Amino acid sequence: LIECGVQNIFCEKPLALDLDDARRVVALSERHGIRTGMGFLTRHPGLIRIHDAVAAGKLGDLLTAYVHCFRGYGFWGHERPNGNGLRQHHSAVRDPQHSGGWTVHHACHGVFTLTSLAGLPTAVHGSLARSADPCPSEEVVCASLQFPRGATGLLIDSVGGYRGLHVGVIGSRGTMMFNDSYQKIRGQSFDLVTRYEGASEQTVERVRHCDADPDQLACFLEAVRHGQPSTTPFRAGLDNLMICQAIVRSSESGGVTPVHFDRPVAAEPAAAFAIPIVSARPRPLPTGSVNGPC
Question: Structure pTM?
């Protein structure tokens, strides 16, 4: 596509399964000046609020951020019935040769969130687990990410368990967190809890999922429309893949694994949750439950 002259390309995660392939795609797109975008997740209203609070310095220096994501699909041999009443292994778990395994396929969402808040990590420590020996892929990902300014990111991602998304940040001036069942139903709500250091009480904001929750494809299309740069270019996809693969290597070695990026690591986080286009008109959410991040 790039060599044929296509000027705008959006790619669903992961960018590639092989780092060399990902590097070639990034180099080619940057050499030709192509606007590129990655689809890691829908911009969750809770994530946007947390990101904005961290970016504005309301919580002080970031000390720790955590992302706990439970897919709710079911472990190997205990999958829940799908919309057609069938029980099937999750495709990413059943065929890691094509998905990259659960870490690359799904834990990449949590990695993306953590790097959006704290920047690129210098090292990771990972531990992977599966519920049964016949399962060809890991089903649970636990990882800690070390960031340049001393902050730590904690990640848990599981194909089983109940469906839910739990995210929080602890800063030197305050803490902000939410627990969301994340069925992604229009009108569904969750509590965003904030507690500032020295305050006598916490504040609770009731946040609703609505049509105004933009996804990355909608924002990318608006960037194309207005001639603005993408906030999640292919370079972000390469960085994410490097981190996910480092988590896998760390689990195999049992030790901390440094992450060496193709450029100097900046301590400042990327503005991945920024929505530069005020006039964005994202696609509406469905009226019923959907699978969400695949």
Answer: 0.89
